[in-house]
Amino acid sequence: MAKVSIIGAGSWGIALATVLHDNGHEVTIWSVMDQEIEMLKRDHEHKDKLPGVILSDDMVFTSDVKEAALDKDLFVMAVPSPYTRSTSHLFAPYIEDGKIVVNVAKGIEEKTLDTLTDIISEEIPQAVVAVLSGPSHAEEVSRGIPTTCVVGAKKKETAELIQSYFMNERFRVYTSPDVLGIELGGALKNVVALAAGMADGLGYGDNTKAALITRGISEIARLGVAMGGKIETFAGLTGIGDLIVTCASMHSRNRRAGILMGQGKTMQEAMDEVKMVVEGVYSAKAAMGLAKKYNVEVPIIEKVNEILFNDGKASDAMRELMLRDKKSESDSFTWNE
Fold first, then answer.
1. What is the CA radius of gyration of the chain?
2. Are strands 100-103 and 128-133 parallel, antiparallel or unpaired?
3. Does the CA dihedral 55-56-62-68 come out positive or negative?
4. Which of 16, 30, 291, 326 lies in the 20 to 30 Å Cα band around 78?
5. How many helices (H) and strands (E) in the chain?
6. Is residue 153 within 8 Å of residue 159, measured between CB atoms?
C-alpha cells in the first residue's frame, strides 16, 4: 500500500483518487480552496464537478500543504495547467528527495513554452517527475468504465512502479519512455478539439469531424516529432486516442466550448458557460509559439488562434482551410511514374 497525495480536487483528481483508493492505497486529496475541502469533508462528494461519485470515509481532505505533502510515496499533480507552476512552487519545500510526482494535467505554458513536466522538474528539482495521460474522461473513470492510459518516465522502473499503483481490471496502464511526446499529444489535442467543436456548432457533419481529427493528428505529429517526440506516441493513446475522445465526446470541455463559439459566442462567453478550465484556450498560443519556433505548418491550430484571439469567425476559418493550396496528403510520398 502506498500513501498518495492528490494535488488538486477537480474532476480528474477526484476520479484518479477513486482508482488509487480502490487499489488499496491511502489517499489524501488537497485543494487550495477551503470551501471545496469543506464540501468534500461534509458530503464526500464533489457536487459541482463529479456529482454522484461518493468518496470513501477513510480518504483525507485538506487545504494544508504540509499535511498533504509529508510522509507520502506518490504525488499526483492534478491542478489545471495554468496553476501547475504556482502549485509546484508551493509544494516544493515539503517534497522529499526522490519522491515521484506524476503530472496528469494537459497543457503548455504560454510564456515559456514549457511542458508541464518541465515546469514541475524546474520547481521541484528533487522530485522524480513522470506523466500519466490518455483518452480518459473523469466522468467515466470515476464510474469504473474501462479506460486505458499510458505513463511516461525517464526510467523504466519509475514507469513500471506508477503503472503498478494505478492499474486494475478497469484502468489499464501502458508504459513509455517518451515523456515529451505524451505531454505534447495531451496538450495539443485540446486545441484541435476546439476546432472540432466549432465545426459541430456550425452544423457540419461526420465528414468534417473525421477530416479535423485526421488532419489534426497530422499537425500534432509533425510538431511533436520536430521537437523530439516519437511518431509511435502520436499514433497511440495520447495521440490519436486522446484526440478522438476529446473531439467526439460531450464530456470534453474543449469540444463544448468550441460548439458554443461555432454558434457565435465569444471565447469568454463559452468558457463562462462551460464553467471549467478549457485547457485548449490556454495551450493555443503556446502551440503557435512552438510551431513558429520549430518552423512547422499547423493550419488548424493557426485558425483556432485567429478565432480565439483575433476576432476570427469559425465559418470563415473552415472555408479558408478548405481552399488552401493543393497538396499531397504526405510529404513522404513519392510517385513511381
1. 20
2. parallel
3. negative
4. 291
5. 16, 8
6. yes
Q: Look at residues 163, 157, 182, 201 and name the one whose alpha carbon lies nearest to residue 105.
A: 182
Active site residues: 189
Long-range contacts of 146-150 (CB under 8 A, 24+ apart): 146/170, 146/171, 146/172, 147/171, 147/172, 148/172, 148/173, 148/174, 148/237, 148/241, 149/173, 149/174, 149/237, 150/174, 150/175, 150/176, 150/182, 150/236, 150/237, 150/238
Separation of alpha carbons 36 and 51, rounded Å: 14
For 44, the grid coordinates are: 464526500
11-20, 255-264, 275-284, range with the lowest pLDDT: 275-284
The residue behind cell 497538396 is: 327
Give the pLDDT confidence score for residue 279 in this predicted structure: 83
How far apart, in whole angstroms, are the C-alpha atoms of residue 182 and residue 313? 31
What would the grid cell of residue 9 be? 480536487
Residue with cell 465528414: 207
Joined grid coordinates for residue 312: 476570427
| Alpha carbons 113 and 187: distance in angstroms, whole number | 11
